[in-house]
Predict the structure.
Amino acid sequence: MSEVGRAVRQNPLHEPWRRFVPVLWLMALLTGSSIVGAIYLRVSGDESPWFEVAVTAFDALVIVAFALRERALVRAALSFDRVTGRGWLYCLAVFGVMVVVVEVYFWLGQFLFDMIDMLESYRAAGWPPWSAVVLIVLCPAFFEELAFRGFLLERLQPLMGRRDALLLQAALFSILHLSPAILPSHFCIGLGLGLMRQRTGSLVPGMFAHGLWNLIVLVEEGLLTGW
């Protein structure tokens, strides 16, 4: 090893930086995927659900690849056995607060910005309701939890502590959705899901809560606009 390489490895900042670089790469790939998707939709006008399938598949492959770097911790966090009865009650309370806060925000937000119709492209393409459930409810609930409350939180907590890691992962989660209108709501969601992960040591409650919240939003939209 060269003298320069040895000096770099002996630098006290080398190990924290080495652990933080994959966080940057994961966010760059996921954010880049969202930006490319938004540009494509704007330029082409193609709103076919097949495009969402392609983006979801790409993001899923990226997230799984990064989660494998922390596979021992992530595998343990996917266990039901780690969550106690008190843990489930805590998660239920956090979920209730999260739903109330975000619902109030969206109710107020309807007077300030246009609400996104997530089901429009599925209706236009003649896709059945279960396809929207898979892409809007199940896939984000699993893969986004794996990415943010799994890989990212596991990487960030040793570097900056539980509180700062909780706040940063929530901020990154909200930024990834590329919509200023929903930054506050998704920051709140990221906080709630992060608290569940820290309190229980498991990703399972957050996956259930994430999926249930997305399902609530989907059902509300379906009732308002009709499938």
About this structure: The chain has one domain: 3-225. Residues 3-225 form one domain. The chain has a mean pLDDT of 89. The longest helix spans residues 129-176.
